[in-house]
Design goal:
This protein has about 450 residues and is of the alpha/beta class. The chain folds into 2 domains: about 240 residues, Rossmann fold (3-Layer(aba) Sandwich), CATH 3.40.50.1460; about 100 residues, Serine Threonine Protein Phosphatase 5, Tetratricopeptide repeat (Alpha Horseshoe), CATH 1.25.40.10. Helix content is about 45%, strand content about 10%. The protein contains 15 helices and 11 strands. Helix 2 links the parallel strand 1 and strand 2. Helix 2 runs parallel beside helix 5, helix 5 crosses helix 6 and helix 12 packs antiparallel against helix 13. It is elongated.
Length: about 450
């Protein structure tokens, strides 16, 4: 697959101009049918709290903790928050929700949060490995007969159509068999998948193996930190977005401090390489994972943002988001010439702002003078601004860098004819354009009209 940076500037213009002719909208009018403006069509939460077991010991604070989590999720705008407490959380009911109700109801553009506060147990599998389970209201702590096992939870996540799932356990649930996510191949794909669309199944548990979970009357330390995170404390980079990975980092930090290092919450990526989004901020502030810290990482991330901006335009998606990504690319790498070139064109034709287009083109020339597209983008902005002599100089500079740049000859021909009153120079530019394989009828007419009656074109 060719990188957007390998496309010539005229090819880039042709692609984007076609989008303008097709009526590209910045209001997501061409989005997938049935998908709403937001990131999710519907948000589901199942919140389970078992404090007063039928046969197992009591779990102090489980009911208060589960209710606090349910209220926090409602505060985030979750559409369906199903609270199941004590005897309602019997094995049969929980299995029905996981195996039947949610798989039937949840769609591809939905998200699910599953929360459980109560006992967890562990058994040995056939290979003598720990395999954890959560204990429903009617199950025994040491007998997995009615338990909800890790295999059943993983099967639920596999069967669910939702793109994002976060499972949270106020318990020491261990034995997850996690396979490291494989690098995605982009070969044969039009563009990298948008970060917010990547599949993700993530798990956050209250403690590490062999640790006990701190409990008292009222909310547990884990849930106190969790609720605080959902209400804003997890926005560690202060960009308005709260991701599951951020929530996990904040909860781990708070719980370890509160328990003086006796309890260490664990965070796992069970499937996919996305990140569950809990709070959506502004598009231009979106980021996944940590901000790049090294120069090499910043340059790499700038390239990613540029390619995603180009893909958004190719797919007739939001030009505004494409511009935001280009601005982010330039922030990461202020010498990124291709990003300035594409920004200049967007501001010239798609989201018009002539001053910004000109400034971006000037930056492209400053940082990438050996790129003919830098000079060509500057010429187009200058021409539209009415600075025709300066536009001529910029086009000639583009040809000095690349003497076979077909489209620049055509633009130069029209500039001489329409604005500079240089008919002979116009014909010479059109002739060179045709010699290089150009097929514009205007150029053909101009060159043919310059011949004497009966003169044949040169072989």
């Amino acid at each position: 697959m060719r990188s957007p940076s390998s496309l010539s500037f005229p090819r880039m213009i042709a692609c984007l101009a076609a989008l303008c002719v097709a009526g590209m909208s910045t209001d997501h009018a061409v989005a997938q049918v049935g998908k709403p403006e937001g990131l999710y069509y519907k948000s589901w939460a199942v919140v389970v709290g078992v404090e007063n077991y039928l046969v197992a010991p009591k779990v102090p604070g489980a009911l208060e903790s589960s209710h606090a989590v349910a209220e926090a999720l409602r505060g985030l705008g979750f559409d369906e928050v199903i609270e199941i407490q004590d005897k309602e959380a019997a094995s049969k009911r929980l299995l029905h929700i996981l195996n039947d109700y949610l798989p039937r109801k949840v769609g591809r553009q939905d998200r699910i949060v599953f929360f459980f506060a109560g006992h967890a147990g562990v058994m040995q599998d056939s290979q003598s490995k720990d395999s954890g389970f959560v204990v429903p209201w009617d199950a025994q702590l040491s007998n997995p007969a009615k338990a909800i096992t890790l295999d059943q939870l993983k099967e639920f996540s596999r069967r669910s159509a939702s793109k994002h799932i976060l499972m949270v356990f106020d318990a020491n649930l261990r034995g997850w068999d996690v396979t490291a996510p494989q690098p995605l191949s982009l070969e044969g794909r039009l563009s990298p998948e948008d970060d917010t669309e990547k599949r993700s199944v993530q798990v956050l548990t209250a403690a590490e193996k062999e640790e006990s979970v701190s409990r008292a009357a009222g909310q547990s330390a884990f849930v106190t930190a969790l609720v605080a995170g959902l209400k804003g404390a997890a926005d560690l980079n202060k960009n308005g977005w709260i991701m599951a990975s951020e929530l996990a980092a904040q909860v781990k930090q708070d719980v370890e401090r509160e328990t003086k290092g006796a309890q260490h919450p664990q965070f796992l990526q069970l499937e996919g390489d996305g990140d569950v989004i809990l709070v959506e901020g502004r598009k231009d502030m979106f980021s996944v994972g940590k901000e790049p810290s090294t120069e090499a990482d910043r340059i790499k991330e700038a390239r990613v943002q540029y390619e995603q901006a180009f893909a958004l335009l190719q797919q007739q998606k939001s030009a505004e988001e494409a511009l935001e990504r280009l601005n982010r690319a330039i922030t990461y790498d202020p010498s990124f010439g291709d990003a300035y070139v594409l920004k200049s064109y967007i501001r010239l034709e798609v989201l018009p702002n002539l001053e910004e287009s000109l400034a971006a083109a000037q930056a492209a020339v400053q940082h990438a003078p050996q790129n003919p597209d830098s000079h060509y983008s500057l010429a187009l902005a200058l021409e539209k601004k009415g600075q025709h002599q300066e536009a001529e100089r910029a086009m000639l500079q583009a040809l000095a860098v690349n003497p076979t740049y077909t489209d620049v000859y055509f633009s130069l021909g029209t500039l001489y004819a329409d604005h500079l009153n240089e008919p002979l120079k116009s014909i010479d530019a059109f002739r060179r354009y045709l010699e290089l394989g150009g097929q514009s009828e205007r150029a053909t007419r101009a060159v043919q009209g310059d011949r004497a009656p009966g003169e044949r074109p040169a072989p």
